[in-house]
Amino acid sequence: MVSPWTCIRCILTVTMFACFLALVTDNMALPRSMQGIVIAHSEEQAAKMCKIEDRGCLKAGTWVQRSGPKEEEIFPFHEGCSKKFFHICAQSKAAWKSLGLNVSATGAQDFRMRRLLSWLWVPANVGCNLSSRSSLLEALSGRRVLLIGDSIAKEHYVSLRCLVGDAAVKDEREHFKPEQSVVSLHGGGFIQFYRLNTFVQESTDVVTPDWPSQLVHEADVVILNTGAHKHARLSDGQNRTAVAEMARTVAKTLQSQNQRGVFIFRSHFLPHASCEEVTAPISSLGRVPRPTQFNWHTFADQDEEWRNAFERSGPRFLFYNITLATSLRADAHTVLLKTPSKRDCLHFCLPGVVDLWSLYTIVEVLQKLRSCQSVEAVSLESKNSLQTVVISHCDKPLAWIFKYVTRNVSNVTVVSKCNRPVEGAPPQARIVRSRNVGRCDHTYAQWLAQLQNHIPPDRQASDLVLFIKDNDMSARSIEHEVGDHAVPFDELLAGATGASRFACGRRMGVFRKGGPRASIFHVKALMGTFQMDAYNRTLSKLASSEGEPFKSKYRNLMAWMKDLGIAELFRNQTILPACYGGNFMTSYSQMVLPVSNIWQRIETSLSRSDSIEEGHFAERSWAALLSRRLTLQDEVKTFTSLRRIQFRPPLCGMIMVNPKL
C-alpha cells in the first residue's frame, strides 16, 4: 500500500512541476500523438520532403576578408563558453594563466583571434544562409542531436553547445568512462556527445559499432566521424575495401537501431603541416600541405567510400561535405597548448570554421525531418497497410472481430489457449494452440519474441499489426469515474499511422458530465507504484487454476520493469503512455527495441500461470514499449493540459485532462 504521506508528497511535487511548466510554454494543446493531426500531401511531395540533401554550402566557395571586426563582435555566439572549453582560443587572462600561459601569449592569441575572425566564408551557392540563434533554438526544440566520434566530433559538440547560448541551457552533464556529454535545453531539445575513436574493435576484424544502441534509438539526428582513428586492419588507410565494409556496416546498424532519424557522416578535412606559420586562409586545396602521419593523406579515399555507402542507404542518410571550407583554414588551428612549444595543427579555434558545420545544416535538416515525419503519417494512412492481426483466443467466437476490422488483412494468427473450438476465424487464419498462461499479454509477448527483434523480410517497417482479444468487452465499465469504450476501427488506424505509431483499442472517457477526461498518459513515478493483491473480477480466487498465487514476487510495476530491463528504456521519461483492455495497433517499426531480448523476458515472466499480477504489469507497459518516445516538449504540453491526476489503483498516475482537448 502507498502511504498517505507518499501521496501528499507526490501531489505537491506534480502540482509544482505543472505550475512551473505552465510558465515556460503558452501552447495548451495536447501532444500531437494525442491529437491525430494530419496534413495532406501527395506521395511525390512526401518523397521530396523526406530526401535529406547537402546543398554544398561548405563544398564550394571562397574566404573573403572583411574589415576588422569590433572587439565586441568577436564572440557573437560564444559568450559564456570561454571558461568552459579549451579549444576556444581567445580567453580571458585568468583562463590563459590557468593553462600555464603567460600574458604575452594571451595578447598574441587574442590578436590572432581577431585576425582569424576577419575572414568570411562566401558559399558558391547563393541560396545558402547562416542560421540565426533563434532559428537554431526553434529547430532544436523537442529534438535530440547526437554526435559520435573523436576529439573533432567533441569540438563540433562544443561549438553547437556554445551556439545555442548559456541562456538556453537548462542542464549539462559530463561523464568520463565512457566519455559522453549532454546538454538539455529549456525548449526541450538535447545535444549529446559520445566519444568513440573507432568503429571497429581493435582486437578483431569484426566491424561492430560500439556505441550504446539506446542513444541512437532516441536521437533525431546522428552526426558521426572518427577521423584518423582507424583499425590496424586498414593498414596505411589505403585498404578501401575494408573502409567500404565498415561504412556499409555502420549505415546498416544505424538503420536497424532507428527507423525515423537522420544520419549524417561529416566528411574529413585536410590537416596541415607547420600551421603556426600560416597567417591567412589558403587559396586552394592544391596548396594544402599533405602530412602523412595518422593516415591523413588517405582521407579523400575514405570519404569516397563513406559517400557511396550513405548515398545508397536511403533518403535519411547524408554525406555532409565540409572539406573545402575547413581545409583552407590552415591559419585557424589552436596551435598553442599548455606547453607553448607544442603545435596542434588538427583542432580549430572557436569561434571559427567549426561553427559553420552546424550553422549551414542543422536547422535545414531538422526542418526537413519535421516535414518528413508529418507527411509520413498521411502516407501510411493512405496505404491502410494493416497486414497482420494477432488474436488471443480462449472461448469467444471471433466473427465480431472481422466485422470490426474494415480492411482486408493478409495475415491472421489466432493463438487459442483454453482448449476450446475456434469459431468465426477466416479461412486463411493460422490457428496456434498454446498453453494457457499469461492470458492475452503472454500471447502478444510470445508473438513478438518470435520476430527476434527483426522486421520480417516480407513486411515493411510501416506495416501495421492489430493485437486483439476474443472478448469484445461490450459491457465493460471500469471504476474511478472513467468509462471504457471501444475505439472505432478507422480512428484506431489513423492513430497507429500518426506520430506515436501506436493506438489503444479502448477509450477511457468522461464518466461524470463536466468532469475531466482520461488520457493515455501517466506520471511514470506514480504509475510505477501500481500493484495488486488480487484481480477484482476474481477476488475470492487468490490463486490461479494451476495453483500458483496471483501475487507476484515484485513489490510493484516499477520493480518488475527494472528486473526485466524495461525501466532502463524510459530512464529519461517523466510521462509514459499506458493502454488498458488488451487491444491495440502499432507498426512493425516499433517492435525493434534497442535491447534485443525484452520480448523474450516478458514472455518468460508471463509463463508462471494464467491469472497473475505480472499480466497487469505487462498490460500497462505495451503502449510505452511500442510507441515513439515523448519528447520533453510533448511532456510539457501534457502537464499544462492536466486537470488532475489519479492516485488510486488501478489507474495510478493517469493524467486527467480538459474534456475539450
Explain what you see:
The protein has 22 helices and 21 strands. Mean pLDDT is 78; it is low at 4-9, 11-46, 69-76, 98-106, 477-482 and 538-544. It folds into 2 domains: 4-30 and 384-657, no CATH class; 43-373, 3-Layer(aba) Sandwich (Rossmann fold). It is of the alpha/beta class and 661 residues long. The strands form 5 sheets. It has a 7-stranded mixed sheet with strand order 4-5-6-3-7-8-9. Strands 12-11-10-13-19-15 form a 6-stranded mixed sheet, sandwiched between helices. Helix 9 (240-257) packs parallel to helix 10 and helix 15 packs across helix 20 (613-619). It holds the Pfam family PC-Esterase. Belongs to the PC-esterase family. TBL subfamily. It comes from Symbiodinium microadriaticum.
Strand content: 15-25%
How large is the count of helical segments? 22
Q: What's the architecture of the largest domain, going by CATH?
A: 3-Layer(aba) Sandwich
Give the CATH topology of the largest domain.
Rossmann fold
Backbone CA Rg? 28 Å
How many strands in all?
Answer: 21
Arithmetic mean of pLDDT? 78
Main sheet summary: 7 strands, mixed
Intertermini distance:
33 Å
Enumerate the spans where pLDDT stays under 50 for 5 or more consecutive residues.
Answer: 4-9, 11-46, 69-76, 98-106, 477-482, 538-544
Residues in helix, %: 25-40%
Class from secondary-structure proportions: alpha/beta
Query: What's the CATH H-level homologous superfamily of the largest domain?
Result: SGNH hydrolase
Describe the strand arrangement of the main beta sheet, using strand numbers: 4-5-6-3-7-8-9
Q: Based on CA inertia axes, which overall geometry fits?
A: elongated
How many structurally independent domains?
2
Q: In CATH's first tier, which class of the largest domain applies? A: Alpha Beta
